[in-house]
């Protein structure tokens, strides 16, 4: 391998996000070429409409992944999230369509049910010592059976307009711009706080010029993101919900004692236990968070489809 090859390999190993972006760019280029329409003179893949639809669909997976990170970091696994998503989405459809519950009551009940079911998985794993693989594999079958029972194996529709907005709505253009400015302001404040903390403890940090360039680059990406979505119909509501969830989970993992406990439990369970951390509670709480995110994803799925279907969350 040449010196240039070694340098490139070292650079990509140190900045993995760059390698990831390169791979994504290559994938996008492939689909752009494959979907090019000579008559229209442009690709059907690289359009604001397609970008918006992709983000809306990815948001549901992202909601589940945000909590699954904690589960995996804690040294566990949850195989039941797809079935739990389908169950909670089905419950939401039944409450909304069959019983005519108000939207706030439906959402509150489904979120609470998600926490309870997820916490029950965690209780079986942490306090009874049953491997999470077995618990969640069994839970997957149980949840799938329950949703078939309560829905009778049929699709339940149509859901109320307010409920539908959660999965199909868009933010007005001006509100999307406001959200972008708020996000950029928060990033600036976080950067200033981080630099102040590092300076106080004499830790290494980027030069002011590099930090400014990084912030400007991030700001340009945010601006481009908003402009592309606003050129179609605006920021999809599920995407906004996902961004909020990612922000909250980032704060939990980096800025809270609970987040540090999760990493400690996954790193060395016994050492963490002897340090006085209630490892059983931490594991149960992680599964409860997973259940909460399954509830949010289930609500979003039902809202996006405008119906509750017993096959939701199963088989992709």
UniProtKB/TrEMBL annotation:
Keywords in UniProt for this one?
A: Cell inner membrane, Cell membrane, Membrane, Sugar transport, Transmembrane, Transmembrane helix, Transport
Q: What is its main location?
A: membrane
Q: Membrane spanning segments where? A: 12-34, 54-74, 81-101, 107-129, 141-159, 171-192, 213-229, 235-252, 284-307
User: What GO molecular function terms would the record report?
Assistant: transmembrane transporter activity
Q: Name one Pfam family in it.
A: BPD_transp_2
Q: Which GO terms describe its cellular component?
A: plasma membrane
The answer to whether UniProt assigns keyword Transport to this entry is yes
Question: Has keyword Cell membrane?
Answer: yes
Compartments, as annotated in UniProt: Cell membrane
Superkingdom to which the source organism belongs = Bacteria
- Membrane topology per the record? Multi-pass membrane protein
Protein role: Part of the binding-protein-dependent transport system for D-xylose. Probably responsible for the translocation of the substrate across the membrane.
Q: Kindly provide the name given to this protein in its UniProt entry.
A: Xylose transport system permease protein XylH
Q: Which organism is it from?
A: Brucella anthropi (Ochrobactrum anthropi)
């Amino acid at each position: 391998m040449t010196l240039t090859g070694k340098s490139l390999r070292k650079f990509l190993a140190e900045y993995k996000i760059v390698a990831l972006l390169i791979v994504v760019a290559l994938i996008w280029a492939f689909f752009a070429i494959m979907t090019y329409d000579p008559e229209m003179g442009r690709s059907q893949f690289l359009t604001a409409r397609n970008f918006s639809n992709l983000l809306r669909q990815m948001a549901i997976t992202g909601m589940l992944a945000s909590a699954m990170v904690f589960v995996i970091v804690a040294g566990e696994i949850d195989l039941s999230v797809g079935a739990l998503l389908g169950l909670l989405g089905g419950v939401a459809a039944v409450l909304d369509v069959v019983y005519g519950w108000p939207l706030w009551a439906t959402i509150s009940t489904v979120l609470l049910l998600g926490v309870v079911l997820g916490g029950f998985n965690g209780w079986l794993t942490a306090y009874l010592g049953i491997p999470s693989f077995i618990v969640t594999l069994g839970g997957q079958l149980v949840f799938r059976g329950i949703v078939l029972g309560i829905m009778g194996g049929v699709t339940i529709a149509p859901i109320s307009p307010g409920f539908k907005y959660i999965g199909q709505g868009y933010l007005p253009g001006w509100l999307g711009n406001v959200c972008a400015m708020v996000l950029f302001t928060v990033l600036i404040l976080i950067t200033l706080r981080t630099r102040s903390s590092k300076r106080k403890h004499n830790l290494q940090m980027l030069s002011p010029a590099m930090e400014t360039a990084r912030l400007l680059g991030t700001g340009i990406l945010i601006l481009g993101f908003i402009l592309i979505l606003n050129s179609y119909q605006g920021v999809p509501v599920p995407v906004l919900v996902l961004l909020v969830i990612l922000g909250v989970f980032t704060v939990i993992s980096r800025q809270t004692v609970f987040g540090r406990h999760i990493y400690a439990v996954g790193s060395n369970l016994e050492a963490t236990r002897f340090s006085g951390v209630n490892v059983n509670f931490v594991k149960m709480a992680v599964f409860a968070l997973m259940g909460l995110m399954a509830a949010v994803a289930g609500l979003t799925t039902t809202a996006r489809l405008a119906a509750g279907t017993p096959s939701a969350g199963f088989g992709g």
